[in-house]
From TrEMBL:
Cellular compartment(s): Nucleus
Pfam family, one: Paf1
Name assigned to this protein: RNA polymerase II-associated
Organism encoding this protein: Rhizopogon vinicolor AM-OR11-026
GO annotation, biological process: transcription elongation by RNA polymerase II
Keyword Amino-acid biosynthesis: no
Homology family: Belongs to the PAF1 family.
Record-level GO cellular component terms: Cdc73/Paf1 complex
Length: 416
C-alpha cells in the first residue's frame, strides 16, 4: 500500500469577490465627483432623535385643569344641579363651531375633498358612499354611480315566487314548448361563421352502457411501439392490469401479438349474445406504466353517441355516459432488479355469462336511468352512499387460459 499523497489534497483554490465601495471623500490630488446631498440626508439623525427624550411636562390633569369647586352641588348633599344638567326643553345656546357634532356620524366620517363638507341629510345632493380606505378607486366610482338614487325610476316591489309542485310542472312543460318551437336556422356555430344547425337530438342517458364504469387514460406517447402515422387496431382492445410491488402502484399494459387477433377479438365481441362463450384470445405483456396524475371527478368529459334510430332498438337521440376517472400515464423505468411475484407475461381472455349476483348488481346500477322511482326507492332503503357512487362488475384475468373474463368494464385511451 502506497503512502504517497497527492499534492492537491490540501490545496484548494478559492476566489472571493470583494468589491470595494467608493471612498466617502476624494483623496488629495485626486478629483472624484461626490454628491453633496449624501451628507445632508435626514436619516442620519433618526437614531439621535429616537434616543433623545422629549422635554414635555404633563401634569396630573393632562394640561386641562378642571376646578370642581365652582359647582356646589358636588359637595352639598341636597345641592341644585341645574348648572351641570341643563333643561332639555330650554337648552343653552350652541356655539356655531360645534354644530357639526350634532350631524350623522357616518356622514361626518366620510373624507372631505378640498375642505368641502358633505350635504346634510334631507338635501337634494346625495352623499358619497362610505367605503374602507383600502378599496380601489375604480370600484369606489362604480359603486358611487350604482348607489345613487334616481327619482325617475320607481322601485318595483318583489313579486312572490310560486314554488309549489304544480308551478314547477308548469315551468318544466313551458321549457319543452320553447324547445319545440325553436327554429334551428337561428342557431349558429360559435366559432365558424355561416354554419347553422340542421337537426336536433334529445340528450338521454345511454342505458346500454350505463352499468359499466369507464376511465379515461392519456399516454405521454403512443403505446404499441408503432409510428403515429401507422394504423394500429390493437390499441382499442388493450388491457391495463393494476399492479403493486413494494408499495408502488402501477399498471401493466397488454396487447395482442398481431392485428389479426385484435380484429377477430373485436368481431367476436360484437357478435356475441347473452350466455354464449367464445374462444380465448392471448394478450402479451408490453410494458409497465405509472400514473402521473389522477382526477377523481371529471364533470366536463363524457361519452356521447349520436343515434339516428336506424337499428329500431331505441329512438333517435344523443346518448351519454359519464366518465368515472381520468389518468395520465407515462412509461415506467424498467430495472433488472424490479421483479414481482404476480407478473404475467400472457393473459388469455374469453367471455362467459354473468352469475346471478353480478346480474343483480348490474340491474341495480341500471335502475338509476331505467326506474323513474329510483331516487325514492333508494332513499327509502338507505342504500345510497355518501358519494352517490355505485360499484359495477369489473374483469377477472387468468394466466393459463383456464380462467375467463366477464364483460362489464370499460377502458378508453387517448394519445397526445
Amino acid at each position: 500500500m502506497s503512502l504517497r499523497k497527492s499534492k492537491l489534497d490540501l490545496l484548494v483554490r478559492v476566489r472571493y469577490s470583494n468589491p470595494l465601495p467608493a471612498p466617502p471623500c476624494p483623496p488629495k490630488l485626486l478629483n472624484i465627483p461626490t454628491d453633496p446631498l449624501r451628507y445632508a440626508r435626514p436619516q442620519f439623525l433618526n437614531a439621535i432623535a429616537n434616543d433623545t427624550p422629549l422635554p414635555v411636562i404633563v401634569d396630573a390633569e393632562c394640561g386641562m385643569p378642571l376646578d370642581l369647586g365652582r359647582w356646589e352641588c358636588l359637595w352639598e348633599e341636597d345641592g341644585e344641579d341645574t348648572s351641570l344638567n341643563p333643561d332639555p326643553d330650554n337648552p343653552p345656546p350652541l356655539d356655531p363651531k360645534d354644530r357639526f357634532l350634532l350631524g350623522d356620524p357616518s356622514a361626518s366620517a366620510t373624507p372631505y375633498t378640498n375642505g368641502a363638507i358633505p350635504t346634510a341629510p334631507g338635501s337634494s345632493t346625495p352623499l358619497p358612499p362610505h367605503v374602507p380606505w383600502l378599496r380601489k378607486t375604480e370600484y369606489l366610482s362604480r359603486e358611487g354611480v350604482q348607489r345613487t338614487p334616481s327619482s325617475q325610476e320607481p322601485k318595483q316591489p318583489l313579486q312572490p315566487i310560486d314554488v309549489s309542485h304544480e308551478a314547477q310542472l308548469r315551468t318544466i312543460e313551458a321549457g319543452f314548448a320553447a324547445c319545440a318551437s325553436l327554429d334551428l336556422a337561428t342557431l349558429t356555430h360559435p366559432n365558424k361563421t355561416g354554419v347553422t344547425a340542421v337537426e336536433s337530438y334529445e340528450v338521454l342517458p345511454d342505458a346500454e352502457i350505463w352499468a359499466n364504469a369507464y376511465d379515461l387514460f392519456r399516454f405521454s406517447e403512443r403505446p404499441g411501439e408503432r409510428p403515429v402515422d401507422t394504423e394500429d387496431p390493437r390499441l382499442d382492445c388493450a388491457i391495463l392490469r393494476p399492479m403493486e410491488s413494494d408499495g408502488d402502484h402501477f399498471l401493466a399494459y397488454y396487447l395482442t401479438r398481431d392485428d389479426a387477433d385484435a380484429l377477430d377479438f373485436k368481431e367476436e365481441r360484437l357478435a356475441l349474445k347473452g350466455g354464449e362463450e367464445n374462444k380465448a384470445t392471448a394478450f402479451h405483456f408490453v410494458r409497465d406504466y405509472e400514473t402521473v396524475k389522477i382526477e377523481q371527478e371529471v364533470p366536463n368529459e363524457f361519452l356521447l353517441v349520436l343515434d339516428n334510430g336506424d337499428t329500431d332498438k331505441r329512438g333517435p337521440g344523443a346518448y351519454y355516459k359519464n366518465i368515472e376517472r381520468k389518468m395520465t400515464l407515462k412509461k415506467k423505468r424498467m430495472n433488472a432488479s424490479d421483479t414481482y411475484a404476480d407478473k404475467w407475461q400472457v393473459v388469455h381472455i374469453s367471455h362467459v355469462a354473468m352469475s346471478s349476483d353480478e346480474v343483480e348488481e348490474r340491474g341495480e346500477a341500471l335502475a338509476e336511468v331505467v326506474d323513474p322511482l329510483y331516487l325514492f326507492s333508494r332513499d327509502a332503503e338507505g342504500e345510497v352512499d355518501a358519494d352517490g357512487e355505485v360499484d359495477v362488475g369489473g374483469g377477472i384475468v387468468g394466466m393459463d387460459g383456464d380462467e375467463d373474463v366477464e364483460e362489464g368494464g370499460g377502458i378508453m385511451s387517448e394519445i397526445f
